Amino acid sequence: MGRKIPVIDINNLFNIDLIDQEDPEIQEIANKFGLALHENNGSVYLINHGIPEDMVSTAFAESKKFFELPAAIKTKYCKEDVIKNYHGYSAVEQERLSDTNRELKETFDIFGHDRYYPEEVPMFKEATESLEAACWKLQAKLLKLLAITIKLENIDLINDCARNCTDRTVPSLNSTRTAYYPPVSDDVIAGDIRCATHSDYGLLTLVFQDDIGGLEVQGPNEDWIPVTPIPGTIVVNTGDFFEKWTCGYFIATPHRVIIPEDEIKTKKCRQSFMSFSITDNSVYISPLRSEMLNKDYDFEPINPYEYAMEKVKKSYGV
Ligand SMILES: O=C(O)CCC(=O)C(=O)O
Ligand SMILES: [Fe+2]
Questions:
Q1: Is 209 in the pocket of ligand 1 (CB under 6 A)?
Q2: How close is the Cα of 100 to the center of ligand 1, in Å?
Q3: 194 lines ligand 1 (CB under 6 A)
Q4: Closest Cα partner for 140 from 125, 162, 170?
Q5: CB 232 within 8 A of CB 53
Q6: Which residues are in the Fe2OG dioxygenase domain (predicted)?
Q7: Residue 89: φ, ψ to 5°
Q8: Is the CB of 275 under 6 A from ligand 1?
Q9: Which of 32-36, 99-103, 278-282 has the lowest mean pLDDT?
Q10: pLDDT tens digit string along 147-176?
Q11: Is the CB of 270 within 6 Å of ligand 1?
Q12: pTM of the entire predicted model
């Protein structure tokens, strides 16, 4: 009870050009960040990250204009075939992370190269893609920091397997999501949730959230810890692939978004924006080895494309 997710100051990392592993300041940030992620079930807040606040608020504002359009317009932008192209809009209940609960969420996933955007919201593309690009830049740096934390012999190994973060032409299943949870209507039934319990399937997820709240992460004793909104922060969660790759050093954080109890808040929508990183499609991962990691942990090499596609198919019922 009463556990809190730590807030880690990463000293404007976004604007530091070179992550030099010999730099004591970088080592200090890497150790603080990595240790906190390790000790807190794969979940921390980052502050002083360097992504401009107005870039975040513009992405939220333009997304909101889209999500508040009539359903008939939004459905024009629905994903047609998630296996062929994950890009596009999903209405309430189109993606199901749980077999039992109704999930009251809408999303627009930004993915791959075959992209289309709502013509009704002319600035949607620029606003969301600017934040997407900033997230990729930060993702690459955070992955490098974590390679330092776990004392990999080849400090570039993680980045070399996730070239997609810095070279957008490298095929991967990385994606960016702008999410909208509509105001709660009167026909809500017991068990309804905004987003059901799951872990993300990739390496790291960056989550920006508005001030409504409801995001919770599971602690080591299966207790639910609220990820209370803190202005200017990004929440980082570790995904399945990173848990495997680091031999369980970083846990794939189970998380969910609940409907707030506060009646005033239920009458408002909630918005969030996420960047999901994963290794390149061509890479098969096998356990990383270093003095920090569990040497007895082993698994057959896994491919991110095969692994993540299975999860996508299940959640979209295809
Ligand atoms: O909206 C949020 O804060 C989290 C949503 C989420 O976990 C997801 O879409 O994977
Ligand atoms: Fe998630």
A1: yes
A2: 18
A3: no
A4: 162
A5: yes
A6: 172-280
A7: -85, 145
A8: no
A9: 99-103
A10: 999 999 999 999 999 999 999 899 999 999
A11: no
A12: 0.97
- Mean per-residue pLDDT for 22-34? 94
Ligand 1, atom 10, lies closest to the CA of: 200
Q: Is the CB of 179 under 6 A from ligand 1?
A: yes
Dist CA 21 CA 35 (whole Å): 16
Q: Domain 7-283 belongs to what architecture?
A: Sandwich (2.60)
Please give the number of the atom of ligand 1 that sits closest to the Cα of 270.
Answer: 1
What pLDDT is attached to residue 293? 97
Residue 200, pLDDT > 90, answer yes
160: tokens are 């070399």
Q: Where are the domains of the chain?
A: 7-283
Question: SS3 of 92, please?
Answer: coil
**Closest ligand by atom to 178 CA:** 1
Average pLDDT score over the chain: 94
Whole-number Å distance, alpha carbon 291 to ligand 1 midpoint, is: 33
pLDDT on residue 2 = 61
- DSSP-derived 3-state class of residue 244: helix
- Sole residue written with tokens 């100051």: 9
pLDDT tens sequence across 56-108: 999 999 999 999 999 999 999 999 999 999 999 999 988 888 777 889 999 99
- CA separation for the pair 318, 312 (Å, rounded): 8
Q: Looking at this protein, which amino acid is placed at residue 173? A: L
In angstroms, the CA 13 to CA 125 distance is: 26
Cβ 227 under 6 angstroms from ligand 1: no
Contact indicator for 49, 90 with CB cutoff of 8 Å: no
Residue in this structure with the two tokens 């959640």, named with its chain if needed? 315
CA of 205 to the centre of ligand 1 (A): 9
Burial of residue 16 (CB within 10 Å: 0-12, 13-18, 19+) is: middle
ipTM > 0.95, yes or no: yes
**Does the C-beta of 176 come closer than 6 Å to ligand 1?**
no
